[in-house]
Amino acid sequence: xxxxxxxxxxxxxINATTLRAWQRRYGLLKPQRTDGGHRQYSEDDxxxxxxxxxxxxxxxxxxxxxxxxxxxxxRRANHWLxxxxxxxxxxxxGKIESLRQLIYDSGREYPRPExxxxxxxxxxxxxxxNVPAMMTLREILDGIIISYTSFCLEGDKKAPGDNALITxxxxxxxxxxxxxxxxxxxxxxxxxxxxxxxxILAPEIFPERKWLLVTSGKLTAARxxxxxLWQQQGISLDVIPL
DNA sequence: CTTCTAACA
DNA sequence: TGTTAGAA
Length: 242
Prior knowledge:
The chain has 10 helices and 6 strands. By secondary structure, it is α/β, with parallel strands linked by helices. The structure holds a DNA duplex. It comes from Buttiauxella warmboldiae. Residues 1-71 form the HTH merR-type domain.
């Protein structure tokens, strides 16, 4: 059984025109052709498309999905959990250098968005108990996250890209700014971090830059109004809800 | 209905 | 990056 591009597009919920663009630009999905040159998509192609969609949902740019599909990376369900446990153990034992090394290595091995959502955020959750000892461990972990993120951001600046600023807006946990920055590394953005939690923001002083606002809590009417106001001033502004 | 390329937002 | 226009 095979499908024309139109049928296939409806089946997997991707525009036919987008499918062609993916094939042309990124070599994703190369269906057989009929004698007339029309694409014939197979059942396997459907599985491929689902995998691609998975990665895109996880925040990986379509342009970077290709190598991820080839990888036999059949990750066990508890793969992330064991990585978390290993990191946690090194943290508790005070093996800071070894912890730092493992985080850097993981960053090379996995897509950054996955590292953030599957490993670093859950790990921070595990050391969040309101106990002095735990608080100290979390400070150590946050320090490593911040320096690793800085390292990745520096790397991005060697390549061309749009300049962006990321900061918190109605946010209580400053480390989230760094995690969201880390998640966006390697995607052709040159990001600078405003690490504080300013009570008021004035993005209009750098209207040429793309602003990324990490926000927790509800997007109240007042906040939406503020966002509209900024955008009406021509400021490119993304709100990142947690 | 499909193909492609070029250009736009 | 996804979408559109236009020609075949």
